[in-house]
Specification:
The chain is 34% helix and 14% strand. The protein is of the alpha+beta class and 170 residues long.
Length: 170
């Protein structure tokens, strides 16, 4: 059972090569349900999600992000967003939701990669998919039918685990 849990989580890998095929809407909805099952400070749930599936819009959004051009062949792009100003747990809540979604996508047989959305990337994306000024795109996530397959991995390093107190390692 322990291995089953670890296998489910470590199946998530960054996938950057897609067939260009259409992504089933029901699979996207399942991943979004997983995202919204994430923990959130005071159950604030600051998240909303913009899903883009129109091929030309997918290409356009991926082209304007400096690290997402690989996503031009994705079948969809998901943009988690919300009101960041005045909410001190925005990044933590959004990261939890995004990771839940990525794990779900991998286990649904889809590929995806999380591309961060710093302040300087917002305007270019907003030129393609407008968003009110008070809202902030947290990530740009190309999602598609994967061409590449990567083995599960954990990257566990026991030296990074400290029991009861921190101990400096040589």
């Amino acid at each position: 059972m322990h291995d089953d849990v670890l296998q489910f989580i470590t199946k998530r890998r960054s996938i950057r090569k897609f067939t260009g095929g259409t992504v089933d809407r029901e699979l996207l909805l399942t991943a979004l349900k997983a995202a919204m099952a994430a923990p959130s400070a005071n159950n604030s749930r600051p998240w909303s999600f913009l899903v883009i599936t129109e091929p030309e819009s997918v290409k356009a959004v991926c082209r304007v992000h400096p690290y997402a051009s690989f996503g031009e062949q994705a079948g969809a792009v998901i943009l988690p967003f919300g009101k960041k100003a005045g909410y001190g747990w925005f990044d933590q809540d959004m990261a939890a939701a995004t990771e839940n979604m990525l794990i779900a996508l991998a286990n649904l047989g889809l590929g995806a990669t999380w591309c961060g959305m710093r302040e300087e990337f917002q305007a270019a994306v907003r030129d393609i998919v407008p968003l009110p000024d008070e809202l902030f795109f947290f990530a740009l996530i190309p999602v598609g039918i994967p061409v590449e397959e990567k083995e599960s991995r954990t990257q566990f390093e026991e030296a990074r685990v400290h029991w009861e107190a921190y101990t400096a390692t040589p």
